[in-house]
Write a structure and sequence with these properties.
By secondary structure, the protein is an alpha/beta fold. It is 33% helix and 22% strand. The chain binds flavin-adenine dinucleotide.
């Protein structure tokens, strides 16, 4: 029998911590979860996925109302947006979901939830505001926070982040967004649609750096059509705030080119994340860390064998579903002493701009980096009847297939990409053949048919080649074309 107070201690009550706690109690482990803020739920619920997706939907509805004439409907004169009312709606949605994450619910499940600041005393014990608590194993799930890029003067300005934007009451007439990654782009488009004039400043040569250029270009074109200005390969060097106005000095990527000053009422910093490790006293437990996070092996173990790190704090893929996946692995390994390992190659993700961009497996960039041979197959949304009916024709599905015909990866840009990608998540995880997807009857009219069509193209090339046609003609005495248009 262990001399520790608990079988499992969890620090952080967000996506990873809550999954770990709910799972651990099901195995009968005496579990304590420590959360430093006043509420459970973490970034995803309070400052991330939930408020951003609610804001995106709200802004999407407002944008759609401006497109009534495209659908043969009368034009509507829309009054300007009251941001306070919008953010109240966002808060209501958070509050509803918060009910699932109450300490009472977790107590009912069997896990003790305590609020306060924990810091390690040694590799089994933490100090929680003066009280010592020990556990046989610990899971660190403290998440991440917005990182501040090295821009002179920025720290002295009242810049916004994802932690403050959802409590704004007045829509800024203009907004600079520092960062052209998923968080920056989602919020930039939403704020733009609500009525702010938005300028995005991105250091990399393209927005959404890890995605293929052709995919990012489709989104960039859409954002530009909506009136958003985008500066790529651009460095922000200096920020100032005077007379309720931000001035952001920008230059080229090298930092040595000509400078220009952008002015706006608000500045949103969405330029990367940093792990929440301050105050944990990881040194006291002997846990190694870097500025990117707490490194783990695939079984989610840190360098200390009974301390695990899950979710954003370990610096792997910063998504809620990944945090939950990692927590499931860590808790079974910690409690059942298994050696389950994470496999990130089969995990997908989505950026919830309009059009959405969802991805799993290899794209061209990742395949080239690894020297993997591939062929690309595409199907356009414009060829899909449902997309035509709904006025969502911008987008495509793009498959990467090995020379031997094996699925390597899939990217979808277009309406509902985050839902459509799951056919490919299952295909990759279950080793399902492309011929199975091509043969499976997809319901008409759905956008999902793009998946069947793109898989079908791979076989159509072989089945309907001139060679096959000539053989069929010979064997079955077929007469060939009945009609041809004049050239
Ligand atoms: C704007 C935005 C939009 C996003 N949208 C999506 C999306 O659509 N889909 C998606 O999959 N992901 C999205 N993400 C990412 C997602 O929010 C994170 O990947 C996820 O929250 C990580 O979960 P976590 O458990 O690691 O951290 P969190 O959920 O942040 O939980 C960490 C918890 O630890 C607590 N904590 C920190 N330090 C301590 C300490 N010392 N002691 C005790 N407690 C501590 C924190 O208060 C927090 O409650 C988004 C992120 C942002 C910022």
């Amino acid at each position: 029998m262990s001399k520790n107070d608990y079988d499992l201690g969890i620090i952080g009550g967000g996506a990873a911590g809550l999954t770990a706690a709910a799972g651990a109690v099901q195995f009968g482990a005496k579990t304590i979860l420590i959360e430093k803020s006043a509420k459970l739920g973490g970034d995803c619920l309070h400052y991330g996925c939930v408020p951003s997706k609610t804001l995106i939907r709200t802004a999407g509805v407002y944008a759609l109302l401006k497109r009534t004439t495209e659908f043969g409907l009368p034009q509507i004169q829309l009054p300007p947006v009251d941001l306070e009312a919008v953010m109240n709606h966002v808060k209501n949605v958070i509050d509803k979901i918060q009910q699932h994450d109450s300490p009472e619910r977790f107590c009912n499940l069997g896990a003790q939830v305590v609020f306060g600041n924990a810091s390690f005393i040694d590799d089994h014990s933490v100090n929680l505001d003066g009280q010592n608590l020990s556990a046989r194993s610990w899971i660190i799930a403290t998440g991440s926070s917005p990182a501040l890029p090295p821009v002179e003067g920025l720290v002295n300005t009242p810049y916004l982040t994802n932690e403050t934007i959802f409590s704004q009451k007045k829509l800024p007439a203009n907004l600079i967004v520092l960062g052209g990654g998923p968080i920056g782009l989602e919020l930039a488009q939403a704020m733009g649609r609500l009525g702010s004039r938005v300028t995005i400043v991105e250091f990399m040569d393209q927005i959404l750096g890890p995605e293929d250029q052709d995919i990012a270009d489709i989104l960039q074109e859409q954002l530009k059509e909506e009136g958003i200005t985008i500066h790529t390969a651009t460095k922000a060097v200096k920020a100032q705030y005077d007379d309720s106005l931000f001035s952001l000095t920008i230059t080229d990527k090298s930092g040595k080119g000509q400078t220009r000053v952008l002015k706006a009422e608000a500045l949103l910093v969405a330029a990367g994340r940093k792990p929440n490790i301050d105050g944990l006293k990881l040194e006291a437990a002997g846990v190694k860390f870097t500025p990117r996070g707490i490194p783990t092996d695939p079984s989610m173990k840190t360098n200390i064998k009974h301390i695990y790190a899950c979710g954003d704090v370990n610096g792997q893929l910063p998504f809620t579903h990944v945090a939950g996946y990692e927590a499931g692995i860590a808790l079974t390994n910690a409690i059942l002493r298994l050696r389950r390992k994470a496999d990130y190659a089969k995990i997908g993700w989505c950026t919830y701009t309009d059009p959405e961009i969802a991805s799993i497996g290899y794209n061209e960039k990742r395949a080239k980096e690894k020297g993997i041979k591939y062929r690309v197959w595409e199907e356009q949304y414009a060829e899909n009847d449902r997309a035509q009916a709904e006025g969502t024709t911008k987008g495509k599905i793009k498959l990467l297939v090995s020379p031997a015909g094996k699925l390597l990866g899939c990217q979808i840009i277009g309406a509902h990409a985050g839902d459509l990608i799951h056919e490919w998540v299952i295909a990759l995880n279950g080793g399902i053949k492309l011929s199975t997807i091509a043969a499976a009857v997809h319901i008409y009219p759905t956008i999902s048919e793009v998946s069947k069509r793109v898989a079908g193209k791979i076989f159509a090339e072989k089945i309907f080649s001139d060679r096959t046609k000539n053989i069929l003609k010979f064997v079955f005495s077929l007469k060939g074309r009945a009609c041809s248009l004049p050239k």
